Fold each of these.
Amino acid sequence: MKFPTFGLNGRVALVTGSTKGIGYGIALALAGAGADLVIVSRNQADCDRVADEIRGMGRRAIGVATDVTQNDQVQKLVERTVAEYGRIDILVNNAGTAITKRAEDLTEADFERVVALDQRAVFFVAQAVGRQMIKQGGGRIINVASILGLVGERQVLPYCVAKGGVIQMTRALALEWAKYNISVNALCPGYVITPMNEADLKNEKIYNHLLRNIPMRRLGRIEDMAGAVVFMASDAASYMTGQCLVIDGGWTAQ
């Protein structure tokens, strides 16, 4: 019996929001497993910096500045990737944002800004890449959701709404696209130290509240998430689709 491995040699991975935080760690981990990369964020200089780093690891990489909330830019991103590599084997939908505000104070603009990036863009990027994967005979889509799509939290209502939608989107797409040999899964991180939440975590009250509620008594690290994505992108996860992989130090087990 031959068991599958986690190697990604020769595969092409596109990672949105991949110049910092969890997305950056995922991009480096995929490259470390042998994949060639497309680095995506809104800033071209940031994309080039990370692409240069990955080329230094011996892998091919390009950086493509893209606002993933704009469908015309998403289409150009897919076209550029296919022109460069000929295919897209792995999509990691990671770009996201959050607003911390009481529900009674949220504006329509607040709500729309979070949902546009954290939910709507996830679908339209998946759709554009999925069309290419259908043409080429398959691929892997990994949507970065959150445990706050599974449980509620105070003062981040639009984020909870968006991430809950991403989890359901993942399940629905998995059912539709299984016949095309496309697997669609979600990563649900718990509380992870990233540039996006760095300021909040400097608040001692918030930090201590989180530690008290995490059974492992520590916050997550970016590398905790990156390894899980390598698994979902690899042959070891070939029979896995429509699932949400929760990595949260035990938060949702309570």
Amino acid sequence: MRPLPLHIGRRLRTGLLGCVLAATALVVPDASVQPADVELVKIQQAGGVSVGPDVVWILAVGSDARRGQDMLRSRGDALQLVGINTRTRAATAIGVPRDSWVDLPGHGRQKINSALYFGGPKAMAEAMTRLIGIRPEYVMVTRFPFFEDMVDSIGGIEVDNPRAFSDPYLKKDGFRPGRIRLGGYDAMAFSRIRKGLAGGDFDRSANQQRTLRGIHARIRSQADRPGFIERGVMTVLKHMSTNVGPADLYVLAQAVAQVEPARITTCVIRGRIGSAAGQSVVFPDVAQARRLGDDARRDATLKGC
């Protein structure tokens, strides 16, 4: 793991674990608890595409695996490639529609979210590398029920919702447009609903990014409250499994904690909706995906979308 700048202040260090808990659910592991609701896997780098020396890339995956099922062999329902610049405190999130139709070595053409099912975190990271041109250093997988509990544990979040939408199963009364407050269940529904959105999978991915922004903002606003960080840490400690050592977790947490809200940029990979192998899929705009990768690889900043 690359060293972080030495100018990080005491206040930043106090809040760093809280940012990780809420924004990416990264904490020191407790391997004695099974099954885990959060899995953090460090991907061993074997060459690949070079990134900037100050940039850390994390692939965040939301899993709909049920309790008792192996999350690391499930199909991801939310895919966000997150880059953090430890020098400039900038961050970016590149959303990938889960139904993106791509080549998976050894399995032919498949939806990109099935890479996790076929080959685990390493295959999921490789699929992202082939599409975007950025190799994530970490893959973090979280079950949705735990995501709900985590949002509730920080007191809910606020997001800017650009349009009204609903879903007969997840949210019958729907979400109104404008600034809205979300508890755990509503944050999950806001992030997962697709059929009630005009842009389908693309709009859902954008809503996932709005949710991450809301979580990050909530943590930053509450980090100085006595006991707030500690309660969050204890919540996640009981539910996590990882191959990452405590020292690396601490450094990774510092990277997340540095992020300035005004320096967060986001984009969702576009594409064309169609059908293949008897199923509805997204044919991703590979040229755009590569352009986004080239744009953000070295500094975790998107100049456009």
Amino acid sequence: MKLPWQGTSFANGIHPEDHKELTEHKPIRRMPFSNKIIVPLSQSIGAPAKPIVTKGQDVMRGEPIAEAGGFVSAPIHAPVTGTVSAVDELVSMPNGSKTPAILIDTWPSSDQAIRYLQPRDTKVMSADELVKAVQDAGVVGLGGAAFPTHVKMKAPKGKTITTLVANGCECEPYLTCDHRTMLEQTDNLLKGLQLAMVTSGAEKAIIGIEDNKMDAVEKIREAINKQQLTNITCEAVPTCYPQGAEKMLLKSLLGLEVPAGGIPADIGCAVFNVGTLAQIGELVPEGRGLIERIVTVSGPGVSKPGNYIIPLGTPLPYVLEQVGAIEKPGMIILGGPMMGMSIATRDIATTKGITGILVFPPEQLPCCNEPEMPCIGCRACVEACPMYLNPSMLGKLADVSRHQEMMDEYHLMNCFECGCCSNSCPANIPLTQKIRVAKQSIRQKARNAR
């Protein structure tokens, strides 16, 4: 079945240097286990997980150590075999906040084999049973959002999902973990996609990949043909940032626009990251939890860049040591350089939502160090914005805290902070940061008013 692809991309966007050559051709490698694991209880959008282990307790790799704190939450499993050394220990998060965590001392004598398994025959499982299995596995969106995946495995009440989209664009510079996943875990990706089709009720699925990854497109198409999956197709879309944003991808693949303030289900679609689907395809049949993920570790400050399978909770200093990072970097970014987060401390650990760790020397920072200048009214930011907003005006209003006007007149909440405006501004105005701070202030006021 050929799906109706329009052959065009979304409007606007930018074409930053991708720097993917550092890691895109290197096979995925496994990083050794660190002596201590730090497992934050907040690793997804929603309520934090609740510990179900105690200090001094021995745990097996893959064993549940924290239960979901609500429906929009995800359980957590032991990334290593070892002994719990602390529970509810406050640790730093990338955004500077503190969150409770479970600390585990790794057993040096253990082979770290996963023995906590509950194999299932997914062919005889109902849609509800599959959703429960995904929830029990603690799977969250691995594209960076870290939204609990089970919540979107079924169509929202009153909605019908007809088309499921697997997002393999990976448009952020430097990041290649999804690319390598599509090449090396193709079968798991297709298994996970088929399971998601069962739970969502989708009649067809389409895998969207930017055309700078044609090796992945060809590999997946070959697997689709071999397995005779007539209701799944794979399409190459034009390489343009932020093609990987779900609204942009749906526009490019299907010619459909998600309504302002809406979700993909409003147009009969559901979008999943390819890495998330590959984990579903692997974890659900094996009956085990998400305890590790593939992370791109790259940048000019790394001597051994690559895509590494890293146990969740691995301390960042240990990761940097393993990849030969420079001792005094000018900047470390978690995620990609466009939408990732520059961190002020190394005293953090890897979590489910970290897609990349990028290290830059002081003389090779990915951002402009020039001083901010007055806006010259060139409209470069307007022409770059994929959401048809006016970032220049939003930035000016943010400077004087006219937040209500930003929302009512300039559709502030339609911005998803892709960074195109800041990247395009010749006056070096940090428009994305101004907009992000304004949105955070609005949300905080709303919370205080409850």
